[in-house]
User: Fold this.
Amino acid sequence: METLASTINADVGALGFLTTPNARGKLKRTLKNPTAANSDWIWENASNYDDQIGNGLLNGYRAGVSNQVPSNLTKGTGTNLSAIIFGNFNELLIGSWGELEILANPYGDGYDSGDVKVRALQTVDIQARHENSFCVIKDAITN
Assistant:
């Protein structure tokens, strides 16, 4: 993935990986070199990013996880395959439409006993400024 990004001059900026919790789990229990006595895990802990959930390092790059990355992909006879994304996340645009809407429902079940259901809605859109800034694997085996 890094080589592909480099060949199209896209290996600049805030480079990192994004994948699924399943892929992170697989990478955290897979050794870089299984025959070496002191091999490290492919997914390494990243102490300098401890304030962020799901953080880590892959091949020296910052790595994160999200349930928004698909983990139910298929290819041939393979099922429940995960996506892994590598790219310059400075090139990821996140647009917010309108405002965050927070609404309490005083008519829901349990209102009389003090329960209030709260709904929060936010409309956002995500787009890559330059699609070539990202490489995607859509068939990572994570089981």
In short: The two ends are 21 Å apart (CA to CA). The longest strand covers residues 92-105. Strands lie at 15-19, 43-44, 56-58, 61-65, 73-75, 78-88, 92-105, 117-128, 134-140. Residues 109 and 115 are 8 Å apart (CA to CA).
